[in-house]
Amino acid sequence: MSVHYLSVNQPFLSRDSRKIEASPYFNSSNEPNITISSDGFGGVSDMNAQVFSKALAGLAEPLQRLASSTPPSMLESVRSGKPTRLDERLYDATATVKIKMSNVAMHIGTEWRDKLFNQIDSLHDIKEWDEDDNPVNKDSFGAFIKELILLKPDNHPGLGLSFNGNVIAMWRKNNDKLIIEFLANGKAKWLVSHDVGGDVERASGISNLLRLPECIAPYNPERWFKK
Amino acid sequence: MHLKTGAYIPDEDHVVRHVKWGQLEKDCDDNVLGILPQAFVLRATEESLSFNWLEYFDGSREDQLTNIKSDLSTRLNVGSKSFFCIGNVKNIKDKGKEFGATSIRIAYAPTHGNKSHVALFRLPDEDLKLLEALASDVFVERIQAQDLP
Question: Which residues in chain B are closer than 8 Å to A172, comparing Cβ atoms?
């Protein structure tokens, strides 16, 4: 059986000797020659692998782009390491967290979901932003949603953002406050402030998301969560 | 009054922190209730916390804040929903001492285009209780940017 292949201008692995040799299949002008081989399947397989790997090399980047979960508008940012335009970053971050929220809409309810959408839009209001600000971090937002489902508060929290894009949820009853910053690593920084006749007592900590309800339980969180 | 670069701001004077919309304490309808402690956290690239020296400028409170807003606007976006929050220098240092931060320094550090700039050093910004106390007890005078010319 005769097999045809295209030889390329590069060293190749000999079937028998298994060592790298200079390819005899290019001319003095450094251009590839087209040659015909009939030296058996093993050699053909080695050579074909080289030919195809060369041909596929050009396809690698486009294929990787198609398979990437990174939104197309962020690709330039990922490649160059430089931020894209502010409006693009805010749009992408808003879309990402809204999709995340839609995935758990059944646990949140339409009214609350719409309110959260408005709060996110408000936090990402481009008129309030600078180029070096960080939009909502998707992992922090995921942690926030998980905790909301766990805590099931009747009262919806106010929302803020740390400089590095962590979601900050806050509740206030009279002068008493509960503030929770959701970190991207699945933990939460919390602070309780309790006004006792003009004297303010404060407590704070960093907890795992699952432990957070227990950590704040001694401070009577129902005053913030229940209607 | 004018000071040399690096000189400490007098105890009786005031510094102003520009707090962006994201670092304001709000209810679920976006009504502003105060400042979040996170407004006093250093960014990864910062060595000191930035403020402006109120008394650098003459005139009424509004004149002073308008000058600060004008200077800040040349280098960053001063959003209409952001706030200018004023704190007394001695009160900041005293609040720090209350929480064990005895070496807070507040120094005049003018930069190009921001001649009233002040740098606050040695604030333990991982202490949320101290930051919340500064937000609630010290920076109690607040003016929204949209209320300034």
Answer: 25, 27, 33
